[in-house]
Amino acid sequence: MDGEAIEQLGAQQDDFTSVLGLAETLALSRDPRVKGFVKILYTTLFKWYADESHRLRMLKRLVDRATTTVDASREIDSDLEILAILVCEDQEIVRPVLSMMREVAELANVDRAALWHQLCASEDEILRIREERKAEIASTSKEKAVLSQKLSEYEATNSRLKSEMRAEMDRFARDRKELMEQMQEVENQLEWVRSERDDEITKLKAEKKILQDRLHEAETQLSQLKSRKRDELKRVMKEKNALAERLKSAEAARRRFDEELKRFATENVTREEIRQSLEDEVRRLTQTVGQTEGEKREKEEQVARCEAYIDGMESKLQACEQYIHHLEAQFQEEMARHAPLYGVGLDALSMKELETLSRIHEEGLRQIRAIQQRKGSPAGSPLVSPHTLSHTHGLYPPTPPPMPVGLPPSLIPNGVGIHSNGHVNGGIGPWFNH
C-alpha cells in the first residue's frame, strides 16, 4: 500500500509539474480567451491539488512572476488577478501570499539599497573623474601654453640657424671655389713638372743611347784591336820561329865552319881566300842574326804597345760603364726624389717631409703669383717659368756635363767624380732636405 501511494504521489507530482508548466506557458499569451482559460486552469489546479506543498509552489510561482515580470503591466495584472481569484477561493492563503510578497519586497529593498549605494559610488566616481578631467585640462592648457612658447622659440632658433646655415653654405661655396682654383693651379704646375720630367727623361735616354753607341764602338774597336793583336802575335811568333830556325842553322854552319877551319888549318895559303870568304859569310850571318834580334825586340815593343793600348781601351770601357751606371743611378735617384711632387709614395713620407713638400708647393705658388703680378698676367694662369722652382728649391739640379770616355773618374771635368757610395761630387741631396 505504501509503495502504491508513493507511486501515485510521484505520478501526481509529475502531472502537477506538467500542468503547471502548461499554465505558465499559456499565461504568456496575449489572447483574452487564452487568458480566461488560464484563470480557469489555475482555479481548477488550486482545487485539485489541495495539499499545502502544491498550493505554496503554485502561489510562489505566481508571486515570482507578478513581481519579476517587466514586459508589460497587463501581464502583471493577469498574474495579480489569478492570485486574487485564488485568494477568493481560499482566504487562508492570504497570509502565505503576503509573506511571499513581503520577502520579495525586502529583497527588492535590499537590491534597491545596493543599487543606490552603487549609484552614489558611481556619482562620486563621476565627480572625481570630472575633477581630474578639469585638472588635466588645466595642466594640458598650461603645457599647451608652454609648448606654444617653446615652439615660437624653436621657430626663432630655426630661422636663425637657417640664416646661419645659408651664410655657412655661401662661405663654404666660396672656400670650395678658392680650393678648386688652387687645385687647378697645382694640377697645372704638376702638369708642367711632368712635362719637365718627360723632357729630362728624353734627354737622359738620348744621352744613354749616345753612350751606348760609343760603348758599342769602343767594344768594336777593342775587338778589332784584340783580333789584330792576335794576328800580329801569330805573325811575330811565326817570324820568331823562323829566326830561331835560321839561328840554329847559322850556329850549325858556324860549327861546321869551325870544324872546317880545324880541318883546313894545316892546309896551304890558297885556302886563306876560302877562309876569308867563309869569315865574311859568318860576319854576314852574324849581322843577319843581329838584325833578326833587333826586329824581334821591335816586335816585342810593338806587342807591349798593343797591350798597353788594349789596357787603356779596357780602362776607358770600365770608365764608360761606370759613367752609365752612375747616370742610371742618378736617374733613379732623381725619379725617387721627385716622385712625391707627382703625388706618388706620399704614404712612405714622414710628417716633416710632408710639411716640407707642402711648404715647397706653397712657396712655389707664392712665387708664381708674384711673377704673374709682376708680369701683369691673370691670377689663375698656370704658366710657370721653368727656372723658378729649379733655382729656388733645387728640385731639378743641373745636369752634370757628359763624362769623357777616355778619362778615368778622377779626371772628370767640373769636379764631378764618383765616390764609393755611388753619389756624384757636387750632387744635390733629397728634395726634403732643403
UniProtKB/TrEMBL annotation:
Keywords: Coiled coil. It comes from the Eukaryota. Residues 137-330 form a coiled coil. Residues 373-400 are annotated as: Disordered. This is Uncharacterized protein. The lineage of its organism: Eukaryota, Viridiplantae, Streptophyta, Embryophyta, Tracheophyta.
